[in-house]
């Protein structure tokens, strides 16, 4: 039987904790109904018997205390809430235990913002990790040695897993169920819990906000210029001339401050405006393409798909109910 330790950090978000517990325990029920033995022993593992969750709105009664779990097979690190640095500090005692268990052969999976607690162990250094797209800038700043892949719903690398934003953790739990219990049980779980199985990308959910929490004023000026003039054709040379900086120096500083190249930033701002148009207006794709400063249909569609994971038409069909009705 595989021992699953679902951690109960102080301030954890109830949904990812209880959702994980429900899915794993339901697998045992499916197997029992077939006359088979249960596959998982699922325990809520905490630093104390009672742990406040979701800003104190709920309290979880843990099955076992951390120091009493000598060995486990899979550790689930649920999403944490509120001030991330404070949350990591409050839950610091989990960190050496996670490291010890991983080195002893356990696998570890972080859900959404649980990635911050997992990254604090150092186990993610040089590895891929997913988290909520809204926390991407903060994560990169805190853990520059981790390869953050904001587009992914799931990462799987050397026994360490992570999931993207919010309820996409359900896809990671299904992925783990498939790995341990097989495809048939994973599909049954997906159907019973009404979860869209095999989702791989969270690109279509991402809202590009630009990274402005830095102190490089010329770069901020360039960002503001791009965001106010995205309808125009903006070039790197135009920006360097405006800021009186060398191209090489400007590009280096821009990438360091924003985690995007200048060209990527321009594309993302334009595509974000096009997305809004597709969500809210009845203009056709070509009209919106011209509105955001593109004149080449193929180039626009290619960049749009790269950034959102969908074609402009598919994106509109997903988010614009009025346009579909027309």
Strand content: 5-15%
Regarding quaternary structure, how should these chains be classified?
single chain
The CATH homologous superfamily of the largest domain corresponds to Class I glutamine amidotransferase (GATase) domain
N→C terminal distance: 55 Å
CATH names the topology of the largest domain as Rossmann fold
Instruction: Summarize the biggest pleated sheet.
Output: 7 strands, mixed
Annotated CATH architecture of the largest domain: 3-Layer(aba) Sandwich
Total helical segments? 15
Features:
Rossmann fold; 48% helix; alpha/beta; 326 residues; seven-stranded mixed β-sheet; globular; Arc Repressor Mutant, subunit A; 11 strands; 2 domains
SSE arrangement:
Elements: E1 2-8, H1 14-33, E2 40-46, E3 50-53, E4 58-61, E5 64-65, E6 74-77, H2 84-90, H3 94-103, E7 107-110, H4 114-119, E8 128-129, H5 136-142, E9 147-148, E10 154-157, E11 160-163, H6 169-181, H7 183-192, H8 217-228, H9 236-243, H10 247-258, H11 262-280, H12 285-291, H13 297-308, H14 312-319, H15 321-325
Parallel strand pairs: 1-2, 1-6, 2-5, 6-7, 7-11, 8-9
Antiparallel strand pairs: 3-4, 10-11
Helix pairs in contact: 1-6, 6-7, 11-14
């Amino acid at each position: 039987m595989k021992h699953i330790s679902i951690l109960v950090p102080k301030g954890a978000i109830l949904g990812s904790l209880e959702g994980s517990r429900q899915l794993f325990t339901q697998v045992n029920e499916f197997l029992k109904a077939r006359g088979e033995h249960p596959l998982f022993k699922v325990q809520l593992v905490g630093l104390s018997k009672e742990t406040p969750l979701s800003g104190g709105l709920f309290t979880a009664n843990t099955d076992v205390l951390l120091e009493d779990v000598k060995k486990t097979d899979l550790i689930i690190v649920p999403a944490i809430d509120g001030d991330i640095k404070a949350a990591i500090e409050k839950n610091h005692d989990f960190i050496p235990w996670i490291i010890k268990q991983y080195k002893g052969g356990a696998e570890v999976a972080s859900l959404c913002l649980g990635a911050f607690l997992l990254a604090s162990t150092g186990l993610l250094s040089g590895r891929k990790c997913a988290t909520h797209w809204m926390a991407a800038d903060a994560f990169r700043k805190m853990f520059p040695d981790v390869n953050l892949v904001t587009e992914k719903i799931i990462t799987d690398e050397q026994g360490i897993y992570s999931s993207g934003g919010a309820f996409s953790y359900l896809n990671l739990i299904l992925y783990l169920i498939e790995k341990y219990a097989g495809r048939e049980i994973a599909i049954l779980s997906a159907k019973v819990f009404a979860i869209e199985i095999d989702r791989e990308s969270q690109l279509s959910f991402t809202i590009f906000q630009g990274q402005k929490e830095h102190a490089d004023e010329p770069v901020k000026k360039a960002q503001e210029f791009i965001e106010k003039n995205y309808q125009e054709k903006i070039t790197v040379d135009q920006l360097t001339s405006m800021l009186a900086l060398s191209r090489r120096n400007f590009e280096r500083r821009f990438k360091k401050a924003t985690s995007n190249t200048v060209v990527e930033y321009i594309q993302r701002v334009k595509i974000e405006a096009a997305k809004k148009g597709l969500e809210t207006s009845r203009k056709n794709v070509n009209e919106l393409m011209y509105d955001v400063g593109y004149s080449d249909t193929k180039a626009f569609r290619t960049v749009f798909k790269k950034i959102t994971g969908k074609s402009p038409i598919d994106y509109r069909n997903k988010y614009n109910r009025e346009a579909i009705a027309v």
